[in-house]
Write a structure and sequence with these properties.
It is a single chain. Helix 1 packs across helix 5 and helix 3 crosses helix 4. The protein is built from 6 helices and 2 strands. The chain has a two-stranded antiparallel sheet. The two termini are 21 Å apart. By secondary structure, the protein is mainly α. It is globular.
Length: 146
């Protein structure tokens, strides 16, 4: 199992690295570090999420996420709004600029991988498609682990 785990991680990390580099060249605007992109994804998926909840979702320390949020607010990609139930707490929302940027990034990323998939045989494409449910289950297990 260790060899399988290493090969899987190597393949996934390699794909992510190549896609990230290629997309950075195609998407306008300054490149965002991966951690900032992850915060934007969490906030886009859970509008109004707080810093502590985002930190739990990302398995990061709250102060680290707070720093990332400050950077994203300064860049105009996130907004902090006071929680009506607790004025001391902040709720996070992505801005239109972030929404547009994420859509451009998603289109570029998906297009790049879709184009690369056309270079595979039908058998290889089918094997990837058949492996997706198991990979999604593996992701779920990993997310649940402390």
């Amino acid at each position: 199992m260790t060899e399988l785990a290493e090969r899987l991680l190597g393949a996934v990390q390699g794909i992510r690295r190549v896609v990230r580099r290629r997309v950075r060249a195609d998407v306008p605007g300054f490149p965002l570090p991966g951690a900032q992109v992850e915060v934007l994804r969490v906030v886009a998926d859970q509008p109004g999420v707080g810093v502590a909840a985002a930190a739990r979702e990302l398995h990061l320390a709250a102060n680290s996420v707070s720093t990332l949020v400050n950077q994203l607010v300064d860049a105009g990609l996130l907004r902090r709004e006071a929680d009506p139930a607790d004025r001391r707490a902040a709720r996070l929302e992505i801005t239109d600029a972030a929404r547009d940027r994420m859509a451009s990034w998603r289109r570029a990323r998906t297009g790049l991988v879709a184009e690369a998939l056309t270079g595979l045989s039908e058998e290889d494409t089918a094997a990837i498609e058949q492996a997706l449910p198991a990979l999604e289950k593996l992701m779920g297990i990993l997310k649940e682990q402390p």
